[in-house]
Design brief:
By secondary structure, the protein is of the alpha+beta class. Helix content is 56%, strand content 17%. The chain is elongated and about 115 Å long.
Length: 298
């Protein structure tokens, strides 16, 4: 009879129990290491894909910005080549005519030509104001001069300037404004109000009404400018603040537009922590609303 000693290993063929366990342990460790390596490379792949997605998103943003800048440049060139040239040509032509035939023209003709020169010069001045303001905003580092200002004073000042233009079309401007202050750049807000009232006059027919009102809620001032004009289609409402969309149309008296005013308003208000939107139906007039903070933004 053969006696087995304690602690001895059995043989399975030519492989001892210890060798068998060691081989299985090696397999388990190898699988474990393989899984760890696989997880590691999966994490690296995910990070790589994320970086690639971020890079692609940055390229898309850069491309969209470039396209926008190209649209702005094209709009500027269009304004300079056509919209700026037209009123200049009118002023030059009429003043040349007045200079050559002033002694032979009747008082009625002189009054008519003088009125045409004034209208062309006024349009040219408004266009130049918007162009200069827009160009100033495109300069890097240009910041608004934020301070507490009275919205009543800004509206009244603008109505005083544009009141005669409205009177010539038989348009009544009504103001329903509360004495409310806002924290913003006075010149920028004045440009917004001027453009909105000017547009309302432009698209409101004879004997129409323009109403300017204000309200306050949750630390925001809301200014609304409504008119009884021709109104806008849904497509116009959706694109009226986009500089790369051509939405400008002639006014009720054939007044020309550039399509620069409303995109300028949106940009100015954005820089003053404000917002702007429009509500309108074709043939039912338009309402433009913009908001500004009543206190300094945090």
């Amino acid at each position: 009879m053969q006696t087995l000693q304690v602690g001895s290993f059995q043989n399975y063929g030519n492989v001892s129990t210890w060798d068998y366990v060691r081989q299985n342990r090696l397999i388990v460790v190898s699988i474990f290491v393989f899984i760890i390596v696989l997880i590691f490379f999966s994490i690296l792949l995910k990070k790589s894909n994320k970086k690639l997605e971020t890079a692609n998103a940055a390229k898309i943003d850069a491309l969209e910005k470039l396209n926008y800048e190209v649209d702005v440049k094209d709009t500027f060139f269009s304004i300079i080549s056509h919209d700026l040239r037209a009123p200049c040509s009118i002023v030059l032509g009429l003043t040349r005519l007045l200079n050559q035939k002033a002694n032979t023209l009747s008082k009625e003709k002189l009054a008519e030509y003088s009125s045409n020169v004034h209208e062309a010069a006024q349009r040219l001045f408004t266009l130049l104001e918007n162009l200069l303001e827009w160009s100033r905003l495109q300069m890097e580092g240009e910041e608004p001069d934020m301070k507490t200002i009275s919205i009543v004073e800004l509206v009244q000042e603008t109505v005083d300037i544009l009141g005669q233009k409205a009177l010539e079309k038989g348009i009544v401007i009504e103001t329903k404004i509360q004495e409310t202050s806002t924290y913003a750049d006075a010149d920028m807000v004045k440009t917004v109000i001027r453009n909105l009232i000017n547009n309302a006059i432009k698209f409101t027919p004879k004997d129409g009404t323009i109403t300017i009102s204000t309200s306050s809620q949750d630390g925001r001032l809301r200014v609304s400018i409504s008119d009884t004009g021709v109104g806008m289609s849904n497509e116009q409402v959706n694109n009226v603040f986009s500089i790369d969309k051509k939405t400008s149309t002639n006014g009720t008296n054939g007044e020309k537009g550039t399509g620069l005013g409303l995109p300028l308003c949106k940009d100015l208000l954005k820089r003053n922590h404000g917002d702007i939107w429009a509500e309108s139906e074709s043939g039912m007039g338009s309402q433009f609303h913009f908001t500004l903070p009543t206190v300094k933004a945090g």
